[in-house]
């Protein structure tokens, strides 16, 4: 065991926030941690992710970043609040 979890946050991989993300160096981490790394990266490292394990840099294409952001946005998206209950009174005829 231990192979199927993110080495950074130790959460098991899934198809949501902890989707496996493969870096150029061959290390794998979850998309949530990948985002955390990108969020804390300085302006000089925009478009690159430095592997937290071996510090090798992986260039991130813009579309990849956008895709990840969309995925996370979807995960953060709260369902719309339920509409107020309709008036139970039928029209009187
Ligand atoms: Zn993780
Ligand atoms: Zn690495």
TrEMBL record:
Show the Pfam families listed in the entry. Answer: zf-RING_2 (PF13639)
Q: GO terms for biological process? A: intrinsic apoptotic signaling pathway in response to endoplasmic reticulum stress; proteasome-mediated ubiquitin-dependent protein catabolic process; protein autoubiquitination; protein K29-linked ubiquitination; protein K63-linked ubiquitination; protein localization to mitochondrion
Q: Spell out the Gene3D superfamilies in the cross-references.
A: Zinc/RING finger domain, C3HC4 (zinc finger)
Query: Keywords, A to Z?
Result: Metal-binding, Zinc, Zinc-finger
The cross-references to PROSITE patterns, in alphabetical order and at most eight, read: ZF_RING_1 (PS00518), ZF_RING_2 (PS50089)
GO CC, any one term: endoplasmic reticulum membrane
Would the keyword Transferase be found if you checked this record's keyword annotation? no
InterPro entries noted in UniProt:
RING_finger_E3_ubiq-ligases, Znf_RING, Znf_RING/FYVE/PHD, Znf_RING_CS
Q: What are the RING-type domain coordinates in residue numbering?
A: 6-55
Molecular function GO terms recorded: ubiquitin protein ligase activity; zinc ion binding
Keyword Zinc listed:
yes
State the PANTHER family in the record: RING-TYPE DOMAIN-CONTAINING PROTEIN (PTHR22791:SF23)
Under what name is this protein listed? RING-type domain-containing protein
Protein species of origin = Pelodiscus sinensis
